[in-house]
Amino acid sequence: MTSTTTPGPVVRTAFEQVLDPADVISDPVQCRAYECDGLTGYRVTPALVLLPRDAGQVAAAVRVCADLGVPFVARGAGTGLSGGALPVADGVVISLARLKRVLEVDPVDRRAVVEPGVTNLEITAAAAPYGLYYAPDPSSQQVCTIGGNVAENSGGAHCLKYGFTTNHVLSCEVVLADGSVVTLGADTGEQAGPDLRGVFLGSEGTLGITTKITVRLLRTPETVRTLLADFPSVAAAGDVVSDVVAAGIVPAAVEMMDTLAIEAAEEAVHAGYTLGVAAALVVELDGPAEECDVQFEQVKAICDKHGCTRLHIAASPEERAAIWRGRKAAFAAVGRISPDYFVQDGVVPRTRLAEVLDRIAAMGDAAGLRVANVFHAGDGNLHPLVLYSAAAGETERAEKLSGEIAELCVELGGSLSGEHGIGTDKACSMPKMFSEDDLAVMARVRAGFDPKGLCNPGKVLPTPRLCGERPGKYRPHPLEESGVIERL
Amino acid sequence: MTATALRPTDLRSVQDAVLDTTGPLAVAGTGTAAGWGGTLGPVDAELDTTGLTGVITHNPGDMTVAVRAGTPLRELAAELAPHGQYVAFDAARVADGATVGGLFATADAGPAALVHGSLRDLVIGVTVVLADGTVARSGGHVIKNVAGYDLAKLLHGSYGTLGVVAEVVLRLHPVPKASATLVVDRPLAEAAELAGLVLGGPYEPAALEWTSAGRLLLRVAGTERALPARVERLRELVGGTEADPWADPWAEHAALVRGDGTQAVLRIGVRPSRLPGVLAELPAVAVTAGLGTGVATVALDPAAVAGAHALVHAAGGTSALRSRPAAAVAPAWGPAPPAVGVLRAVKAELDPKGRFGPGRFDPWM
């Protein structure tokens, strides 16, 4: 969609009326700390950064934005991988880092009420004394915030069995683009009327800013069984996943890593993975002890049937943690075997895993680039890591390959993104997955929430401005050039 | 005035039906919830989805199915059963032939919601036809997908007021190899205490409901080998007896959810710990109560509906009127939610002329 307003001058004093002046950051050096999120290839320095201390200040700041026609971008921990928190040059960044209170943990009704700046893992930490936990577990859970999880509808390794953020959030207090505050959702999963909470979740900060979230907590499973199995081929490991599913087992997690990813992870954390093996599979089951034992035996037998060359069963919580450390370290560890890399997040129907991996390998060969694969095998969510060297001038080639892999996933009946979001990164690929009409209807929904288009503009939905040109460095606003407004 | 009957059989003919008419339009399936929600205002045409049936794609290995919205869920279930798969959803009116689209549009759910939620939690893709004939899809065919807005959620519970849901893609689950139900005779307050013990323990029940017959029903599902030990462990905690599979206590539960036609049936949801207290204050004739979900179905005199809405709302809950006796006048909805302004704005964007389902959300929108 196109913004219907022209950004007005960004007036520091207007925000100082509603926030402590010390919480209004205009120093360019300080603002630069907010110029990108986890997708560091895109950078825009915002005009101002606001650090509100509570929900009331968030709403007041947004009201100022609405009055002045200033676009705003909400930001949590900045760990997003799709440029969803990329600032707008003429706009403000509203950081939710200071809204970090756990307001309530209710062990009886198994829920917690938290502010958006609370990290994913802090929710579980607060719930743990009651034998409860918060289920969605993105790899960045130590640092990523629940506000960001709500915006991105974050998943994680265990969402195959337990679902995504959208399945675990009962309600959100939301500051709308006009500064008004509403609650979307209710105290129960079943709610009267169209599910506005559901459309807000995963809208990547484009429909409002959440300032309070009520999440469901689950009881910590009685038993958890984890195994790490090596296979002579990715296809054999894939067959194991198919047979596990066909046996009617819903594992808590099924993760796969290929040779390159294992090499990187082992070099980084020495988690006990086998170097040189074609594929490693992590399978985790959880639930009542009786159930877990029965199904774990079935999974072991299926692994043997498909030529498993080594089966390591975690004998202690420490061994389980080591297996997961290897898996979760794989992304960052790739930095050890390549100076630079792009992460992709496409999804294919699970039955097309072998096919998509073959084609990715062929595309990598053709481009002369290595691709490491770490993925959620149970739900077909790939994380191909395209390895390249910026110094060797491979950036553009790698970026192109990375984009082609995402679009290949769509071609095979899947999605551009399983959990990282569309953000700035993939907005221009959206027409590969959705028709013009699909996107136009999404834009209409957006207009219902935010008619002026001030809330995180330029994300999710492609715009001619964004997609007609490559992202470049900041250029001054015409009014700024002519001296009508100034950048503070 | 008699409304024109439209009976499309595929997406294209749904679009044609919407475009060939200009006035107010109602969507109807098999009619199992025709009287739910606000009373439908006058319409020029009724779009009957019962010809819009059949599976579009089912790839068993991916455990997803795309289905036309007019397909009765029980028929879909019969097609999926040979593959050992099912839609993990058990609203009472499934047995009456309710369509997938109707169950979705009315946000219905059954006892399985304790674990699987409602269709809102199982839908992964949707195709909708808007009042101007625009066909739009969101989501897709994979269970993990965050690309674009999740329009399916918006349409869930929209009672045909935002668009005609033509196709949905659902996530499937493996049919449990074995299941059993424990029946514990207890009044509500005691049943709620037992429910707290069960939910606080490692038992992972598949469903947990109390009925006004004075019974707590606990369903356990899993593998044949593990189930007996699990049921035994649960029985040691709560007592009760294993239900005779021939005398299905869940059929009795479903009958209470449907109501007997003499009362108004109100669906309510409150924080689970508040549910027994709220139910105690309602002049209910019959009740089913999800003590884990906080969702209950309450049969009561139509004259008591307005007060019930207010009571539930005061407890922070949500409520919707389902069936009621033909001549009864009762408000369908409680006080408007705080986000009603957004609801109206979204309605104005998607259906600016207010063609679809006039009156269904009266007075909200």
Low-pLDDT parts of chain B are none
Mind telling me which CATH architecture of the domain at 4-174 in chain B this is? Answer: 2-Layer Sandwich
Strands of the widest sheet of chain B, in order across it, are 14-11-13-12-16-17-15-18
The CATH homologous superfamily of the largest domain in chain A corresponds to FAD-linked oxidases, C-terminal domain
Anisotropy-based shape of chain A:
globular
What is the total domain count of chain A?
Answer: 3
Helix-strand pattern of chain B:
EHEEEEHEHHHEEHEEEHEEHEHEHEEHEH
Please state the structural category of chain A. alpha+beta
CATH architecture of the largest domain in chain A: 3-Layer(aba) Sandwich
Give the strand order, joined by hyphens, for the main sheet of chain A. Answer: 15-12-14-13-17-18-16
Number of strands of chain B: 18
User: What's the CATH class of the largest domain in chain A, please?
Assistant: Alpha Beta
Largest sheet of chain B: 8 strands, antiparallel
Oligomer: heterodimer
